[in-house]
Amino acid sequence: MARNAARDPQRANRQGLWRPGYISTANTVFLIIIALSIGTIAFMQMRSNQAAEAVSSGLFAANSTFSDAVQQARETERPVFVLASAEWCGPCQTMKRTTLADAEVQDRLLARAVPYLLDVTSMGDLSQEDGELAQSLGVTNIPAAYLIEPDGTVRTAFRGMRSKESFLEWLNASG
Questions:
Q1: Using CA atoms, how far apart are residues 125 and 169, in angstroms rounded to an integer?
Q2: If DSSP codes are grouped into helix, strand and coil, which group holds residue 15?
Q3: Mean of pLDDT values over 135-139
Q4: pLDDT number for residue 167
Q5: CA distance 49 to 86
Q6: Of 22, 33, 117, 170, which one's alpha carbon is 20 to 30 angstroms from that of 64?
């Protein structure tokens, strides 16, 4: 039967055998939907990362090293706000583009602390100073935030993503 079907494409189709090069309209529509979905997801991820990077570069731009942040904290008599985050961490990126992007959060944070971003995307690529900082803070879960006095004492900390309200409550309670 298969031998005869190979000679007669219409008969092969009637028998439910697949013809090389044949894609049904339904399959074509399905493939287009899948391709559009993948493209949309990739675009949204790219925009999300760009928004988080914009917050990071604005809020955390003043201090390129933890030593710089500590020096500024001493001069201004404020603690250092350390945010441990990574590029691959979804909750970290969400917190950057929502909570930390909020103008009220930024204003209060800058008035009370000196921000520093501890990027733990690749622990092997950390500077010696950042590696020692991550180890001394015991960074195991991210996002994690710490208020650190210029003398190195951790005033308060939290782990996990925070909403604007929760973050401001934490910041106000920290003194």
A1: 34
A2: coil
A3: 90
A4: 94
A5: 11
A6: 170
DSSP string, 43-89: HHHHHHHHHHHHHHHHHTTT-SSHHHHHHHHHHHT--EEEEEE-TT-
Tracing tokens 């697949």 back to the chain, one arrives at: 18
List beta partners, residue 146: 82, 157
The yes-or-no verdict on residue 17 having pLDDT over 60 is no
Q: What is the 3-state secondary structure (H, E, C) of 98-160?
A: CCCCCHHHHHHHHHHCEEEEEECCCHHHCCHHHHHHHHHHCCCCCCEEEEECCCCCEEEEEEC
> How far, in Å, CA of 22 to CA of 104, rounded?
59
Total-model pTM: 0.66
pLDDT per residue as tens digits for the range 99-130:
999 999 999 999 999 999 998 887 777 788 88
Confidence of residue 50 (pLDDT cuts 50, 70, 90): very low
- Residue 170 tokens, joined: 């934490």
| pLDDT (0 to 100) of residue 40 | 67
Closest CA to 67 of 154, 8, 133: 133
